[in-house]
Amino acid sequence: MNKQLVLLSIFLGCMSTAFSQRGTIENLPNFDKKEIHYGFYLGINQNDFKVSYKPSSIESPEVIVHPEIGFNVGLIADVRMSNRFNFRFEPGLSSNAKTIAFRHIGSSPDSIRSINSTYLHIPILLKMSADRYHNIKPYVLAGISFNHNFSSNQKNNDDNYAGEWRMKSDLFMYEVGVGIDIYLTYFKLSPSIRGVFALDNEIKYDNTSGSPWTDPVKFMGTRGVFLNLAFE
After folding, report:
1. Which CATH number does the domain housing residue 200 bear?
2. I need a surface site. Which of 110, 115, 147, 215 has the fewest CB within 10 A?
3. pTM surpassing 0.70?
């Protein structure tokens, strides 16, 4: 909660700075003329799973995901395509934790699985910007990302019957977001909020059919929110 409040305060402070630009000197007037520039970003995330079910031997399956706050960090390479369009490459790391409760199993310890995940997150994005107004410029972006889960446990032969939760290592996601470029004296600050959504089913099914953990699950894929601050 403290992390959320700190970053939210910074985000709101950036918004306040952005919208109090009237009558000020235009900073970095030639910044957007660069063919390519670099930067880095920091942020927080909250990811859970979208879960859908299929017919199985398990009656009334119910899977509840309790996400925690994670963090993001990465690099930025931005290529100018035109006055309004930029191509962005933003490789980074994303870390988060979740608790999954299998309500249909009951209250035994085996009904809970705790997951700590670290992803290599490699998005390719198209950024579309509005006209610059003094020292601010809003934008939207969208793209697709390749993600590698270092904590997937995919190659582990043990499954939930041995207390091991397994996910697939590699997946693709799409993401969409909005943000605002704020031109400061020496650099550009860009707060943004993004939604990320898995295209692949991430669950690694148990070795034994009829598993109460995986058998009733048709699809389990990440969905989440990223709140980033980029420095360029």
Report:
1. 2.40.160.20
2. 110
3. yes
